[in-house]
Every structure is written in C-alpha cells, then in structure tokens.
Specification:
single chain; mainly alpha; 5 helices; 73% helix
Length: 139
C-alpha cells in the first residue's frame, strides 16, 4: 500500500509545475469550497459533482498507480452538467431562494475554473481514448 501511495505521489509530482499548482491551489480548492456553501443550491450541486469526481478518480488513480488521463473522463460527466446548471441557477431559474452574493461569486469562479478544466479534460479524454495510457512519473 505504501509503495502504491508513493507511486501516486511520484506521478503527481512529475506533472508540470503549473499543472500541480492548478490542481492543488485552484481546481480542488474552488470545488471544495462547495462544502462551505451547503446552505446554497449551487453549493449542494457542486458538492455532489465533487463527490462523484473523488469516488471515480480515486479508484482510477489507485489502479493506475498515478495520474492517468483516464481521470479526465469522469470530469466530463460531472463538470458538463454543472456548467449547464451554473448559469441557470445564477439566473434564479432553479432553487427556492434568491442567489446570495456568496453563491453568485462562487458560481462565477466555479464556471470559469471548471470551464478551463473541461478544456484540458476533453483533450486528455480524447488522448486516452486514442491509446495514450502512460502514467506520468511511472514510465
């Protein structure tokens, strides 16, 4: 188990520095912020999507022993519906309460950050489907 965890860490650390920063300091924190906004419609929707991503990516990471491009596929199933729902919520077409300032700011940040993430996810999913199955740091 310890060797597998070391492989996963080694794989993460072998990613370009900007990717490590993107994941650890931008993508994960923005999505994790949902758990501080569970009193909002968008907080709950994002928390559900984030839990789905963790529950699908953790086994992929474990089996592949690192950061496989396959991890991008579940993001498509989580972020695309969320990207559709964010503007609908911000327009107050769903939810029973008005959008608060905090939910509005969160929604805009989430829409931008996950939108950028989706660009990378589409590319990585396509590359994985085309056979690029190597795991960074384990070649």
């Amino acid at each position: 188990m310890q060797a597998r965890m070391q492989d996963i860490w080694k794989s993460y650390r072998s990613l370009p520095t900007w990717v490590q920063i993107w994941v650890a300091l931008i993508l994960v924190p923005v999505n994790a912020a949902a758990f501080f906004l569970l009193d909002t419609w968008l907080g709950v929707a994002t928390a559900i999507a984030a839990i789905f991503v963790v529950l699908t990516n953790a086994p992929i990471m474990w089996v592949c022993r690192g950061m496989s491009r396959l991890m991008s596929v579940p993001h498509l199933f989580a972020w695309i519906p969320l990207q559709i729902l964010i503007p609908i919520r911000l327009a107050e077409m769903v939810g029973s309460r008005p959008v608060s300032d905090a939910e509005w700011a969160f929604g805009i940040a989430l829409f931008v950050i996950n939108g950028i993430s989706l660009v990378f996810d589409v590319i990585d999913s396509f590359r994985w489907l085309r056979g690029e199955r190597e795991v960074p740091g384990l070649e």
